TrEMBL record, chain A:
One of its GO terms (cellular component) is mediator complex. Pfam families: Med18 (PF09637). The lineage of its organism: Eukaryota, Metazoa, Echinodermata, Eleutherozoa, Echinozoa. GO terms for biological process: positive regulation of transcription initiation by RNA polymerase II. It is found in: Nucleus. It comes from the Eukaryota. This is Mediator of RNA polymerase II transcription subunit 18. Keywords: Activator, Nucleus, Transcription, Transcription regulation. Component of the Mediator complex.
From TrEMBL, chain B:
GO terms for biological process: regulation of transcription by RNA polymerase II. One of its GO terms (molecular function) is transcription coactivator activity. Residues 125-150 are annotated as: Disordered. It comes from Strongylocentrotus purpuratus (Purple sea urchin). It is found in: Nucleus. This is Mediator of RNA polymerase II transcription subunit 27. One of its GO terms (cellular component) is mediator complex.
Automatic annotation (TrEMBL), chain C:
The lineage of its organism: Eukaryota, Metazoa, Echinodermata, Eleutherozoa, Echinozoa. Component of the Mediator complex, a coactivator involved in the regulated transcription of nearly all RNA polymerase II-dependent genes. Mediator functions as a bridge to convey information from gene-specific regulatory proteins to the basal RNA polymerase II transcription machinery. Mediator is recruited to promoters by direct interactions with regulatory proteins and serves as a scaffold for the assembly of a functional preinitiation complex with RNA polymerase II and the general transcription factors. GO terms for biological process: regulation of transcription by RNA polymerase II. Pfam families: Med20. Keywords: Activator, Nucleus, Transcription, Transcription regulation. Component of the Mediator complex. The keyword Transcription regulation applies. PANTHER family: MEDIATOR OF RNA POLYMERASE II TRANSCRIPTION SUBUNIT 20, UBIQUITIN SPECIFIC PROTEASE HOMOLOG 49. This is Mediator of RNA polymerase II transcription subunit 20. It is found in: Nucleus. The gene is MED20. The keyword Magnesium does not apply. One of its GO terms (cellular component) is mediator complex.
From TrEMBL, chain D:
Pfam families: Med8 (PF10232). One of its GO terms (biological process) is regulation of transcription by RNA polymerase II. Component of the Mediator complex, a coactivator involved in the regulated transcription of nearly all RNA polymerase II-dependent genes. Mediator functions as a bridge to convey information from gene-specific regulatory proteins to the basal RNA polymerase II transcription machinery. Mediator is recruited to promoters by direct interactions with regulatory proteins and serves as a scaffold for the assembly of a functional preinitiation complex with RNA polymerase II and the general transcription factors. InterPro entries: Mediatior_Med8_fun/met. This is Mediator of RNA polymerase II transcription subunit 8. Component of the Mediator complex. Belongs to the Mediator complex subunit 8 family. Keywords: Activator, Nucleus, Transcription, Transcription regulation. PANTHER family: MEDIATOR OF RNA POLYMERASE II TRANSCRIPTION SUBUNIT 8 (PTHR13074).
């Protein structure tokens, strides 16, 4: 496996994603206790492509909800706090598609786009209200088109200030395995399952059960 | 702690003894293989093969017994500690706090990449196997050699000059972005930026670009060569080069630089001052890009007196 | 991205829209402008579903000059600059915001270059009908409109006629001298488009 | 009549051959146990047992099948008992039964258990019948408790026997934490201020789900049901 090539391929696929309309996110989630997270990171470093530059992130995510009479829409705005970034990412995440019970991974419709920094303001103006917000801090790995994040979640002690002291959510870190691909990409779940198998028994990643 | 130290001592002794044992064993085998040369013991009496062998075997036996003793000692020490934990040491990479493991991974990936890259580049180079002239490699060295020593002016002097000029002209902001050779970046109002390469205090090269154009290449190195993509600034670069020659005073370097900055400063209102002669802003799609060297009044290139 | 000015080129009674465009292109040719491809600016308006959100509009605009970018402008002129995939997200909000029917308006035409100036002459069409002509002039080396406004006026009078005076630029009113950016161009187009829509609806009611 | 005899003969032959197979397997196993007990390994013993059980099964199946004549209805009548050695018999039984005499015949031709064992069985059956269901249940529970206790003791002992395996089984992730984190990211559980707000927003999310999937009207009640359930879950937490 050529790391640099797959990196490029990954870039190409994400670059093409913006043009295609029916994108879906294939997702598996799990958690790892803080004490064992080092082992997981080491294992991921061995498995994934981007070892020489382990990507860390510290993101601030705001979830906005627009409530109508009998429906509501949810949009997520996310930006990097460290290093501070002037651009935001806007994401729409659909509800998990439960039509096919036999599927091994959660599938939900997914759209994202990079936006300018006035995103919260914009969402406020078109009627969205902030529902909740948090800070996620951790590591990001790539393996081909797979994206693996290991992140610790913090809640705000003061609203709207990602720099303010933060409270830890749990003694565990969230592990997410995701691929964003056009709908109907059949071998994606299989790839993900194979990868998930390699994380056992440290982490068992599974479908979303909300 | 003390037991660990003792253990280490024992181990190193054991290693030495093993070495001794190996030497004596190989010596024995050598003797057996080569037969015994006519050698003499200390008293000058010739030695028989049997006695030599006996001696060798005795040595082996001695080392072996010593080694065995040491091993016993070491084992006893280890039993005092919990073996369970030491066993886990080899199994769990996390407890291994040395960065050996990640470094090894990194090295491996780098090596793979390096091999790929070199394979690619080899393919490329084979396709275009033009012999590079040997001179090109040597020329920078030559240029460095001819660098003028008489123009060596302390960085302190340059800094002073920059500070003075910054104070003198409000619209001009000079920053030193490279030390050797000195490269200055001059922002004139919000209109343009000039990249000035100095030799001593004399202007070696001037490049004018738009205020919002990049100073650095994509890889973060200083871009001293790409001309501005805008016609106005290409034109002004020409005029500025001319001006730098016009104001060239090797004996009064300080004055030379100041007059040039004075001239450059006149561009701060480049887009909002009409031509002195025709009263228009635009001629040939360009604003008045020429400045009188004495009065620094704006003119279009074809309107200049 | 330099400073831009978007103005309307009047279509007089005795001319059709293509003829009006031709007058301009002939002049530009005579001045030595060179063609450099096509351009297009379009605007799609989304209207809120009144049961869910009080009446609001979102104008989603594209400029071919920035082909991967999309501009979403609210009523308060908050402009969100984002990737094209924003439209997919807009479609997901179809319970709240729906595209206004027949509200897709665009200006399409030829792009000319003349020194550091870029001139774009576009025919504005609302649905299938051509409604008028918009001229965009961009002066690329400068990013502060206060610095180069007289220069631009002079340039525009150069090919649009000496008697022609463009409206005072909205950015001129702004006391702060901030660098010009792509949103400002989009705002100008939006302003002009809204004028066309208003006029279009008024003429429609007259008929 | 002749036909029936033939069927009987065939059937007996078949049974005989099966029983011989069984016997052979048994002797094999015994041989193994006796002579190779030092090198014998568990899988091979298991193999032998599997073979035995298979053969017993086929035998039983044959005896129960419809085609087999009902052997129960046949009568064996010992016509003559004698204390003399019977060479023929000895050969047939491979030397186990030397003569057809009063000592062995009752054992070989027995169709019922011995009276003593029958008696004891009956006593046990009576005891079981007398037991009330409650008492029985209590006893079963008792037994279960004892066995689980024993199991846990074994498990804890195992950790001391085998420290390596217990080390490897350190839990590195907990499902409850996963649920908490996932709930937090997706629904904002634990991020929102004010407990009162939570069930409300949760209900909203349920509605969004319906809106998103364009669920037919008939599906709405089920959505409401889950909604009540998850809301209740919140209060319990």
């Amino acid at each position: 496996m050529n790391p640099s090539m797959s990196h490029v391929l990954g870039m190409v696929s994400t670059g093409g994603s913006s043009s295609s309309s029916a994108q879906q996110e294939y997702l598996l989630v799990g958690s790892i206790m803080d004490a064992a997270s080092d082992s997981l990171l080491l294992r991921l470093k061995a498995l994934c492509d981007n070892v020489e530059i382990p990507e860390t992130f510290r993101d601030h995510e705001m979830v906005f909800i627009l409530r109508g009479q009998n429906q509501q829409a949810m949009l997520r705005a996310r930006r990097s706090v460290n290093p501070p970034s002037s651009s935001w990412q806007l994401r729409y995440i659909g509800q998990p598609d439960v039509s096919d019970k036999s599927r091994m991974v959660t599938v939900r419709s997914y759209h994202d786009c990079a936006t300018s920094k006035n995103l919260p303001n914009f969402l406020d103006e078109i009627g969205f209200k902030l529902d909740y917000e948090f800070v996620a801090e951790g590591h990001m790995f790539r393996k081909g088109r797979l994206k693996i994040t290991v992140s610790k979640l913090y809640k705000f002690s003061q609203p709207g200030l990602p720099e303010s002291p933060l409270d830890v959510m749990t003694q565990s870190q969230l592990v997410e395995l995701s691929v964003v691909a056009p709908s109907g990409s059949e071998n994606v779940p299989e790839d993900m399952r194979l990868f998930a198998e390699q994380l056992k028994p440290l982490v068992i990643v599974d479908k979303l059960h909300i | 702690m003390a037991t660990a130290l003792e253990n280490a001592n024992l181990l190193s002794r054991a290693i030495l003894t093993t070495q001794k044992l190996r030497i004596s064993v190989s010596k024995t085998f050598n003797h057996m293989k080569d037969g015994i040369k006519v050698s003499q013991d200390e008293h000058g009496a010739p030695k028989s093969f049997a006695s030599q062998l006996q001696e060798d075997l005795f040595l082996i036996n001695e080392s072996f017994i010593e080694l065995e003793k040491l091993t016993m000692a070491v084992r006893r020490q280890r039993e005092a500690e919990t073996i369970g934990n030491t066993g886990a040491l080899s199994m769990d990479p996390v407890t291994d706090k040395t960065p050996l493991y990640p470094k090894a991974l990194e090295t491996y990936k780098w090596a793979t990449r390096l091999r790929e890259h070199s394979a690619h580049s080899q393919a490329f180079l084979n396709n275009s196997s033009i012999k590079r002239s040997s001179g090109s490699g040597g020329s920078p060295a030559k240029r460095r050699k001819t660098a003028p020593t008489n123009l060596n002016i302390s960085t302190q002097a340059v800094d002073n000059l920059v500070m003075n000029v910054n104070r003198q002209f409000h619209d001009v902001k000079i920053t030193k972005i490279q030390l050797n050779p000195t490269v200055l970046q001059v922002y004139v109002s919000r209109t343009l930026q000039a990249i000035i390469v100095l030799r001593g205090l004399l202007i070696e090269r001037v490049l004018i670009r738009a205020h919002h154009e990049n100073t650095l290449n994509d890889d973060g190195t200083l871009d001293l060569w790409t001309a501005s993509k805008y016609e106005v600034f290409q034109k002004i670069t020409e005029h500025a080069t001319a001006a730098s020659l016009r104001y060239y005073l090797p004996t009064m370097q300080d004055l030379s630089f100041r007059s040039f900055m004075h001239w450059l400063n006149s561009f701060s209102k480049l887009f909002s001052t009409p031509c002195r002669l025709c009263g228009k802003y635009i001629k040939d799609n360009l604003p008045p890009t020429w400045r009188c060297f004495r009065t620094v009044e704006p003119y279009h290139e074809c309107c200049r007196p | 991205m330099g400073v831009t000015c978007v103005t309307q080129w009047p279509v007089t009674e005795n001319r059709t829209v293509p003829q009006a465009v031709e007058v301009l292109t002939k002049r530009l040719d005579a001045l030595g402008a060179s063609k450099s491809g096509n351009f297009g600016v379009d605007c799609e308006t989304y209207q809120s579903v009144p049961t869910n959100v009080p009446l609001k509009y979102i104008h989603v605009m594209h400029n071919k000059e920035q082909p991967y970018t999309c501009y979403a402008v609210t009523d308060n002129r908050t402009c969100l600059v984002c990737e094209n995939s924003f439209e997919a997200i807009m479609h997901r909000l179809n319970g709240f915001y729906v595209p206004k029917k027949t509200a897709r308006i665009e200006s399409k035409g030829t792009r000319y270059e003349m020194g550091d100036f870029i001139i774009k002459i576009g025919i504005v069409s609302l649905g299938p009908h051509a409604r008028g002509v918009l001229v965009e002039v961009e002066y690329t080396p400068c990013v502060i409109i206060q610095d180069c406004w007289p220069l631009m006026v002079e340039f525009m009078q150069g090919f649009m006629g000496a008697q022609y005076t463009p409206n005072t630029h909205p950015m001129l009113a702004n006391k702060q001298e901030v660098p010009f950016n792509a949103e400002d161009t989009v705002f100008q187009y939006l302003e002009q488009f809204e004028n066309f829509v208003k006029r279009g609806s008024s003429t429609a009611t007259v008929r | 009549m002749q036909n029936q005899d033939k069927v009987l003969d065939n059937s007996l032959d078949y049974i005989l051959s099966r029983v011989n197979d069984l016997k052979k397997a048994l002797t094999d196993l015994l041989m193994k146990l006796e002579h190779h007990h030092e090198t014998l390994n568990w899988p091979s013993v298991l193999n032998s047992f599997a073979l035995l059980s298979g053969q017993i099964n086929t035998l039983n199946r044959h005896l129960k099948s419809d085609k087999t004549p009902v052997l129960k209805n046949l009568i064996i009548l010992p016509l003559k008992l004698s204390q003399d050695r019977d060479e023929e018999l000895e050969k047939v039984t491979e030397g186990r039964v030397a003569s057809f005499n009063h000592d062995v015949v009752p054992n070989y031709l027995r169709t019922k258990p011995e009276p003593e064992s029958e008696e004891r069985e009956q006593v046990l059956a009576k005891d079981a019948a007398q037991l009330s269901p409650e008492v029985a249940k209590k006893q079963i529970d008792n037994l279960n408790r004892l066995s689980t206790h024993l199991l846990s003791m074994l498990a804890s002992q195992r950790e001391t026997w085998d420290p390596d395996s217990s080390k490897l089984n350190i839990t590195t992730s907990s499902p409850s934490d996963t649920n908490m984190l996932v709930g937090a990211v997706n629904m904002g559980r634990g991020f929102k201020r004010g407990m009162v707000q939570q069930p409300m927003s949760n209900m909203g999310a349920q509605m969004a789900r319906q809106g998103d999937q364009h669920a037919p009207v008939g599906k709405i009640p089920s959505g409401i049901r889950t909604n009540i359930k998850s809301g209740g879950g919140h209060f319990n937490r």
